[in-house]
Design brief:
about 270 residues; Rossmann fold; about 40% helix; alpha/beta
Length: about 270
């Protein structure tokens, strides 16, 4: 069976440190772009630990929110932190969703599609489960050109290890992560009024330890790589990344820009032939 996600996802608490805190921050500009409306039934595809669903529920008096993710650990974490009876979290495959056609008034997907090898299949599923006239929207990090904190890590690792160089190239060429790819996928799926934009947040770290700890949490490709290293190689990488983080100043707070590509489109409304 084809793998529907390449993201290592085994610990909700570790994911919160690694990415949840940033997906929470990205949710606000993403919802500004994707829109919200009262009374809607909304799908949050690739919901992770539920950050987008929780942000959406604070914005609109929705009819219902369904968060779907392939990771049982993340869904368990989201359920444990959910206090809203209108939000349901379910384990499921974004490429084979367990919903009927036209089930949702709005379909959102934040920070997932670039980890889906069959990304075009997931986009087709997003359109299928959205009703005619519904908005379908997604956002992914601009890993190559706009995600400074991960470039700091991967560029340093690549200078030390040829294998890391290959992994860096893989990370920067994931599906839907380069300029124009999301828009092209939305048009290929037959969505109307396709609009693209860039969203930016800041990633604030309190110290180098705050920056480095997520790479020890076994969530995502960077942590996968660190976990694969022998102890001496891991320590060498940590020391070099620390130098890049310090950048000539004492240890302490740092703030990096993080840019995401975003897209939205409308499911066509079919009209009968007169």
């Amino acid at each position: 069976m084809a793998v529907s996600s390449t993201f290592s996802a085994s610990d909700g608490d570790a994911y919160e440190v690694q990415m949840g805190r940033w997906s929470h921050r990205l949710a606000e500009p993403f919802l500004d772009f994707a829109g919200t409306a009262h009374g809607e039934r909304v799908l949050d595809l690739g919901c992770g630990t539920g950050r987008l669903s929780f942000a959406l529920a604070k914005r609109a008096n929705v009819g219902a929110i369904c968060g779907l993710d392939f990771s049982e650990a993340y869904i368990d974490h989201a359920r444990r932190h959910n206090r809203n009876p209108l939000i349901e979290f379910r384990v499921g495959d974004g490429c084979e969703m367990p919903f009927q056609d036209g089930s949702f008034d709005r379909v959102l997907c934040q920070l997932m599609l670039h980890f889906v090898p069959r990304a075009e299949r997931a986009v087709a599923e997003m359109r299928r489960v959205a009703r005619p006239g519904a908005i379908v929207a997604a956002a992914v990090w601009d890993a190559r050109g706009g995600f400074i904190s991960t470039r700091l890590f991967w560029d340093t690792a690549a200078a030390l290890d040829e294998r890391a160089n290959a992994l860096r190239a893989q990370n920067y060429t994931r599906p839907m992560s380069r300029p124009g790819e999301l828009g092209a996928a939305w048009r290929a799926a037959g969505l109307d009024d396709v609009r693209e934009t860039m969203l930016m947040i800041r990633q604030e770290f309190a110290s180098f330890d705050d920056f480095w700890v997520p790479y020890l949490g076994k969530q995502g490709p960077g942590a996968d790589y660190v976990d694969s290293l022998a102890a001496d190689a891991r320590e060498r990488l940590r020391d070099r990344v620390r130098l890049a983080y310090l950048d000539g100043e004492p240890d302490g707070a740092r703030s990096y820009a993080a840019i995401a590509w975003a897209v939205k489109g409308t499911v066509p409304i079919r009209t009968g032939i007169a």
